[in-house]
Amino acid sequence: MIAQIIFSACLLIAVYFFSRNVSKIVRNINLGRDVRIKGDRKKRWTILLLVALGQTKMLKKPVVGFFHLIIYLGFIIVNIEVLEIIIDGVFGTHRVLSEIFPANIYSLLIGSFEVLAFGVLLACIVFLARRNLVKVPRLVADDLDGWPRKDANYILVMEILLMIAFLSMNATDQLLQEKGEAHYFKAGAFPVSATFFQPAYTSLTTSSLIFFERFFWWFHILGILFFLNYLVISKHFHILISFPNVFYSNLFPKGKFNNLDSVTREVKLMLDPAAENIAEGEPAPRFGAKDVYDLSWKQLMDAYSCTECGRCTAACPASITGKKLSPRWIVMKTRDRLEEAGRNYDLHGPNFRDNKALLGDYITPEELWACTTCNACVEECPVNISPLDIIMDLRRSLVMEESKMPNELAMMSSNIENNGAPWQFSPSDRANWVDGLDIPIMSDVAARGDAVDVLFWVGCAGSFDERNKNVTRSFAKILKAADIKFAVLGLEESCNGDPAKRAGNEFLFQMQAFTNINTLNNYGVKRIVTACPHCFNTLKNEYPELGGSYEVIHHSSFLQQLLLEGKIKIRENNLLSQESITYHDSCYIGRGNGIYEAPRQVLESFKAELREMKRCRTNGFCCGAGGAQVFKEEEPGRRRVNTERAAEAIATGANTIAVACPFCMTMMDDGLKNQGEEIPKLKDIAELVADSMEQVSPVS
Ligand code: SF4
Ligand code: SF4
After folding, report:
1. Claim to verify: residue 239 and residue 292 sit in the same structural domain
2. CATH code of residue 590
3. Among 64, 328, 377, 378, residue to substitute to test ligand 2 (most atoms within 8 Å of Cβ)
4. Is pTM beyond 0.85 here?
5. Ramachandran angles phi, psi of 101, nearest 5°
6. 387 CB under 6 A from ligand 2?
7. What is the pLDDT of residues 81-91, one digit of tens each?
8. Quick check: CB of 637 below 6 Å from ligand 1?
9. How far, in Å, are 317, 325, 388 from residue 625 at the CA level?
10. Packing angle between helix 147-178 and helix 206-231, nearest 10 degrees?
11. Around 608, how many Cα atoms within 13 Å sit in the side-chain half-sphere?
């Protein structure tokens, strides 16, 4: 009876502290901004089943994924055994479930728990070895110095001890069952403990066996109650919180960045003073996030869900090339700051502010400006966390609330404001690329009362950059050869706003967006094709909420379709048929919008040998241009991102590097410099098609 009272008291104390600490975490998460997360619930349940329960993202690395799956299953399934232990502890029974289940089912249950427990034991030893002996780089990186590194080791050791206690308890229990000891009636099957653990106890007397069986029983259950309370102060809380976090995953294409409502209202007011203003008494709007209070509850839940696995950092081009940025650290520092905010709340009440902030005191501008917005971190995260989302909101605050940004980006913004392009070109030069090509201009088409099937959105790089003008001309020639009824906006086209948005200047982005939407809607445009993934992503994903809904097609998909329909044909004896090509995935059509096959199918039509780079498709490596990086100097690091990528392309030994983005073209072109004599040709897929089409002379 005393044992039952002690056990019940321990249980109540453990549950009390666990619930109290979990409610504090929930409270902390609610310190964030309230946002409504949109998206279909059916899709959410599917993601929960696949990513959280099915561990699909973990299994992308099969060996580690397998061991993690064992630990995870062990955690879920062996805990059924814990239920029995708790009932036994409270009521003084022994193996109470054996009286509920038929003997063979109970034996099957206990036998499989043992196998799983043994698997967990082995997996934890493997994980300890990876951290401390093999020293896998992402598990020994500097951002884990201090408590995070100890935490990871403590939990693995704890799990090993718990599994040893569980199996030792079973081993001694079975010996007592065989001795016919009262209370230890025959129940269960013990395939693992009988083989590996029992030999250590067979020579013991009955009283010693009872002592050890009780010792391990208490050690196991008290260890689990301790573990439960340790979870809430450890990264291992992800075991619980990753389920709701995955449920509330972003369901939109990764390339889509949210449009700040606070900015939309201001921009609408600028464009139309009669538009709705903020109501009296309503708090002043915030533009981006300075501190955890400005982040959304979902971003804060992300911070608590981080497993500190470092897969994001291991895939991050900025981190790989030695920049100060580590997406894992961004998430960890957000959680650290949130914990601090929570402690302030406990000590001084909800309205207390300590004059510290996530931006500045925890995360530096240098880290934020190193991000290329490539989405590799988001793609890699096994629990669908978006470090990029936090980075972008902090950038927005830096730019829009503090007017702090690299000089080159300030220049880029003023170019967009003045010239409608991120460079200092005259807007009147925008359509110079059409010279001699007889390209229909939308205003002329409309003036004739005519309509087009598709609008060719050229983009700033395609209009002004000398190298990329050839891509534009090539694509226009293909459209003409395929007899597509198209037109361009000509001088009416203006920057889509992507560089401003990715640089944190949401105001400028929305000004550009509203202007362009007005132009496009005035012409009744329905379909748009563009050779620029950034224009494609912005027009397709970010304009609809602002009133511009169009079918937007990237030229890789358009070319694939023209080839499939036979509207263009590649010559049998084309120049590439005897060559090899490697394709560089653009982040904004690849990870951003899931387009991987279309450009490859276009390349396959040349019958050339397609050689993939080491990092391709979902784990493709950025060229270093995105996130407005192309308009500024790279942050200090060991190597430039484009040099790293160009070297990887050269390593394939391919004769030609194919790209499908003007900014990848610029960055790869630059990255290929100083890489030796034998550098491959660099071409956009449109140039390759135009050069090899039947009946069309090569583009001059
Ligand atoms: S978006 Fe890309 S560059 Fe930015 S943190 Fe993530 S992986 Fe690194
Ligand atoms: S953000 Fe995701 S990928 Fe990065 S360390 Fe955390 S759990 Fe791992």
Report:
1. no
2. 3.40.50
3. 328
4. yes
5. -90, 150
6. yes
7. 889 999 999 99
8. no
9. 11, 16, 16
10. 150
11. 27
